[in-house]
Design a protein that fits this description.
globular, alpha/beta, about 25% strand, six-stranded mixed beta sheet, 24 strands, about 525 residues
């Protein structure tokens, strides 16, 4: 059925046509003669490695960047967008991977922001509320217009983002990695919503690196590699393995872990840790865990259930209200982050651009972050520029960071190469304990496989690793021990060898606990 639908749509005139698109940055060719045709009322997926040019292409279509060469046609008319506002006026909306919502405003206020209906000098809330409730029906589940966004689940926030662009009249919807922060149940709900929108004539461009999801939801798929268009295929014509080969020239990787390397030596110990906010509310509740050398302990949970707070406490960024933190035999509860890093604590942050890199700075300076007071980056009180360059070259070569050299600015790298630089920076420092928060978020199958391999090698070398991830297959495949975090507490220990993503997702959302109760 998918083949018939896709084939019928492919014969229809395109609602979006990109011809010969080229975009160059200093030292980087992001797009080079890219061609894309999307027909009305289809779900069209775009896949490719990080650095293949997907995001740049969508930014060009959405008016965030202007192409150096090529033409853009929307509904048969050539356009030259100079801003997202012009793209929105032409009926194009984009939902970014990281939501752009104000948590302290209501759903209604977020949706109408910048396009407020007026009754005299006042906001016409009744008109706005009716329109939002009408658009909510296309999402399969109503969203209360008067709820604060900060009180919504991740899936609900995503629905608000989609409602926001539909409210502005979008007929062409761009979704950038929309399932990156969703549990399996929320992914299924999203896909149902997208099918309903497609049935109403909305055209959807779906960017993802999760190939099994692409094959489930897309009618047609365009593959980019190295800034070029490789091919466009109907959904029923390819398997995930074949898509991976088109993208990276290799088989689809899996995150399976080799034989156990767990020892009896404690690497990280967290004892009865609690954390409260300024109002005395619990953010963490009696957290206790032990990670041994050679062990990966995975933590699953819907974002916002205390994972980031736990990482901050272990790093020394926040002081616990109660409990202790030990690195091996050393109590570090009252020490600062710098001392803990010096004692052997490595950190791969969940947001590489916010917490992991200084984007306007060169790679060799980014390679020093967190280690700048130790060799090879320093000699006594002085910076060792030669040593920093040499270590950065080592990271580039050892971790396959695709860049012309250590003097390139961090913002010029694709997301996957930025991530490999951070992983290389932390692992070449040989920490005793590694905090890995969402280490493969938003990166393609090739970069993902490389990061998995480096984490497995570090485990085999005796490192104790705390793995936090929204990728349930990653957690199940890599972890020796697996815990679920819910509302600031560790609520269930599950066997990675037996649990399925669906069962794990039910614990993450609290459904399993409710059934048990």
């Amino acid at each position: 059925m998918a083949q018939t639908r896709a084939g019928t749509q492919a014969a229809a005139p395109p609602v979006v046509r990109l011809e010969g698109i080229a975009k160059r940055f200093p030292g980087v060719v992001a797009n080079d003669d890219v061609h894309l045709e999307v027909v009305s009322g289809e779900i069209h997926a775009i896949v490719g490695e990080n650095g293949a040019g997907k995001s740049t292409l969508m930014k060009i279509l959405y008016g965030m960047q202007r192409p150096d060469e090529g033409t853009i046609e929307v509904e048969g008319r050539e356009v030259h967008f100079r801003s997202p506002k012009e793209a929105i006026t032409a009926g194009i909306g984009m939902v970014h991977q990281h939501f752009m919502l104000a948590g302290n405003l209501t759903v209604l206020e977020n949706v109408v922001l910048g396009l407020e209906p007026r009754r005299g000098p006042n906001l016409d809330r009744a008109t706005a509320r009716n329109r939002i409730q009408e658009l909510s029906k296309t999402q399969g589940a109503a969203v209360d217009p008067d709820r604060l966004v900060e009180a919504l689940s991740v899936g609900e926030k995503q629905r608000v983002e989609i409602i926001k662009v539909l409210y502005r009249g979008a007929r062409i919807l761009i979704l950038d990695e929309p399932t990156g922060v969703l549990v399996p149940q929320e992914v299924e709900e999203l896909f149902e919503h997208l099918r309903e929108l497609r049935a109403e004539g909305v055209t959807i461009i779906f960017i993802s690196h999760k190939l099994h999801e692409v094959l489930e939801i897309a009618d047609r798929i365009t593959v980019l590699r190295g800034g070029h268009t490789v091919t466009t295929v109907d959904q029923g014509e390819v398997s995930a393995r074949q898509l991976a080969e088109l993208m990276v020239g290799s088989e689809l990787p899996t995150p399976g872990t080799r034989e156990s390397t767990v020892t009896d030596r404690e690497g990280l110990v967290v004892e009865d840790v609690e954390l409260r906010d300024e109002d005395g509310r619990h953010l963490l509740r009696a957290i206790s865990l032990v990670i041994r050398e050679g062990e990966i302990l995975g933590i699953a949970g819907v974002e916002g259930n205390g994972q980031q707070e736990l990482v901050d406490v272990i790093l020394g960024l926040r002081e616990p209200s109660a409990g202790r933190v030990r690195l091996a035999d050393e109590d570090v509860t009252t020490t600062g982050t710098r001392q803990r890093r010096g004692a052997g604590l490595g950190y791969i942050p969940e947001d590489r651009q916010l917490r992991g890199l200084l984007l306007p700075f060169p790679l060799w300076e980014n390679a020093m972050l967190g280690h700048q007071d130790r060799p090879p980056f320093s000699k006594g009180l002085w910076l060792d520029r030669g040593g920093a360059h040499a270590r950065t070259e080592e990271i580039i070569e050892g971790f396959d960071v695709r860049t012309p050299g250590p003097d390139v600015m961090a913002h010029a790298l694709s997301g996957g190469n930025q991530q490999k630089l951070i992983v290389g920076r932390e692992l070449t420092a040989s920490p005793r304990v590694l905090l890995a928060a969402h280490p493969t978020r938003g990166i393609d199958v090739g970069a993902q496989a490389a990061v998995w391999e480096q984490i497995r090698d570090a485990r085999a070398a005796g490192m104790a690793i705390l793995l936090i991830s929204a990728d349930l297959e990653e957690l199940i495949g890599l972890s020796d021990t697996l815990w679920v975090m819910f509302r600031g507490a560790l609520v269930a220990e599950l066997d990675p060898a037996e649990v399925t993503p669906e069962v794990l997702g039910s614990y993450m959302t609290g459904a399993a606990q409710e059934r048990g109760a």
